[in-house]
Specification:
Blueprint: E1 5-6, E2 12-13, E3 16-17, H1 18-24, H2 30-38, E4 42-44, E5 47-48, E6 54-55, E7 61-63, E8 66-67, E9 76-81, H3 98-101, E10 109-111, E11 119-125, H4 128-135, E12 143-149, H5 155-163, E13 166-167, E14 172-173, E15 178-181, E16 186-191, H6 198-205, E17 210-218, E18 221-222, E19 231-233, H7 236-247
Helix pairs in contact: 1-2
């Protein structure tokens, strides 16, 4: 049975086998972890690790001299959602749920949806407070999209979309937004609202049909370097800016994370 370790505040930290712990942090498989331990490439609290030993998040674990962040640390990932993947966790009839296709040792959920027929950037995290902050419509966080429509884009279309469009179905007028024509049938648009299917609804009011949508940016995070289906960990600079934008410099969390591009 695993021994437990008590923190200074009285909280008991449950311990588990080192190979299982390293696997749950996404470092490697259990078999590979055992091999690393046998080769002397793993230390725990400054001492050479031993096969079968018990560890917890409070222990300092180094693999090849690099510290491993605990599995309870906050995780923030940038994920390129492909067309066909559904942003749902509970619909058992969905063909490709996001929770099935994103294989990460720590359970993460998404901030802001993309329709099944849309693609692009989703931020995934196990930090509920961060997700709530990003999804708060009143915060005005920017989301940028590349959009293709079914007919040639007119100057009137650009001007009216930029100024705000009355959505009959919802009985509301969208906020002014940034928009740029990039081709005969394509444009970039930056939104700060959380209206469901906003771009499709706006285009429909203007007599257009959206053919394709790709989200390329959420706040300071972009799709750069990602192919459909890939995810990556955020850099320290990206995390710092993201948390500052959501909570302010004073309340920024000291976020550590694990994971790599997959």
């Amino acid at each position: 049975m695993a021994e437990n370790k008590q923190k200074g505040n009285g909280t008991v930290m449950e311990k588990e086998r080192l190979n299982k712990y390293l696997a749950s942090c996404g470092v490697c498989s259990r078999r590979e972890a055992d091999r690393l331990v046998e080769e002397g490439r793993v230390t725990v609290n400054g001492e050479r690790a031993v096969t079968g030993m018990q560890v917890c998040d409070e222990d300092q674990i180094l693999v090849n001299g690099k510290e491993i962040q605990g599995k309870n640390k906050k995780v923030v990932l940038a994920y390129y959602k492909p067309v066909g993947v559904v942003c749902t966790e509970k619909d058992r009839f969905a063909d490709k749920k996001i929770t099935d296709v994103v294989k990460f040792p720590v359970r993460v959920t998404y901030a802001g949806r993309l329709d099944k027929d849309s693609e692009g950037l989703l931020l995934l995290s196990n930090d509920g407070a961060l997700i709530d902050a990003m999804m708060r419509g009143s915060a005005g966080h920017e989301k940028e999209y590349v959009v293709k429509v079914n007919k040639e884009i007119s100057n009137e279309f650009i001007q009216k979309m930029e100024a705000g469009v009355y959505l009959t179905e919802l009985d509301l007028t969208t906020k002014p937004c940034k928009i740029e024509k990039t081709g005969k049938f394509t444009f970039k648009i930056v939104l700060t609202q959380g209206v469901n299917r906003q771009i499709k609804r706006m285009a429909k009011e203007m007599g257009y049909h959206v053919v394709a949508i790709r989200r390329i940016r959420v706040m300071n995070i972009t799709l750069s370097g990602l192919m459909p289906g890939q995810y990556r960990q955020l850099s320290e600079a990206e995390l710092r800016t993201l948390y500052n934008s959501c909570f302010g410099e004073k309340n920024r969390k000291n976020t550590k994370y694990c994971g790599d591009k997959k």
